[in-house]
């Protein structure tokens, strides 16, 4: 579901590392005589995104460090790269997700194919809670509330970025499963119908019966960066992978294009969702 499924007890370590990186970045920026707005403009990221990084609330994109080389002196870059290396974690999932979250926030196009769970950007609160309440090992109440808050916060991207094109291909089977029960499934369908009305959001269901299906290798997420470069992201059991090699990203783009053609179109998806809701 592309949401960084790690909620274990090593979160404080990550938070401390992110805060340290943010402090280092801010100090180097100020040493260069740049305001936050000026630096954000020169590295071609939003001021809001940069602010979150400096506050330790967002994992820095590798692209940010690359672009900073054109702004900061070589000594400062060495310090920044060392700070970035300190963020490396034993379990790559959460750190990879923080990188993906940064990419996601700046994306001008975002594609998602889901066969495990409703995409995180589209989950209603009841569904989010249903997921975390069933997680093993069990999470604490505090962890659950933090995860719910974080995921709901990320969903603001759909409305805060009206110029970003969002496309979702979702397996109908995920709704047929009725995770969390009938009321939760009804909330999911209502959410999909509501989000699907947004001008920048396209939602398509992959029907239960589809003989031509290229999604057998699992979920995939793709993002087009402000530089019009494409990046891919996949997840598995306690693992994840950020895909940047152009040849590999091209494969995912080809597959996603086929998935869109094999899924129901947006109008037929609305009809099916409406029918499924009435049958609950």
Can you walk me through this structure?
With 280 residues, the chain is an alpha/beta fold. Helix content is 52%, strand content 13%. The protein contains 13 helices and six strands. The protein has helices at residues 11-31, 36-43, 47-54, 62-68, 74-85, 92-106, 125-133, 141-154, 157-160, 173-176, 182-195, 246-262, 266-279; strands spanning 109-114, 165-171, 201-206, 220-224, 230-236, 239-243. The protein has a six-stranded mixed β-sheet with strand order 3-2-1-4-5-6, sandwiched between helices. Helix 2 crosses helix 3 and helix 11 packs antiparallel against helix 13 (266-279). It starts with 10 loop residues before the first helix and ends with a helix.
Short précis:
The chain is α/β, with parallel strands linked by helices. Helices cover 52% and strands 13% of the residues.
Write the element-wise H/E pattern from the N-terminal end onward. HHHHHHEHHHEHHEEEEHH
- The geometry reads as globular
Neighbour order of strands in the largest sheet: 3-2-1-4-5-6
Could you name the ranges where pLDDT drops below 50 across 5 or more consecutive residues? 5-14, 88-94
Largest sheet: 6 strands, mixed
Task: Please report the number of helical segments.
Answer: 13
Structural class per helix/strand content?
alpha/beta
The fraction of residues in strands falls at 5-15%
Q: Give the helix proportion (percent range).
A: 40-55%
Average residue pLDDT: 87
Count of DSSP strands:
6
Q: Return Rg in Å.
A: 20 Å
Alpha-carbon distance between the two ends: 24 Å
Features:
alpha/beta; 6-stranded mixed beta sheet; 13 helices; single chain; 6 strands
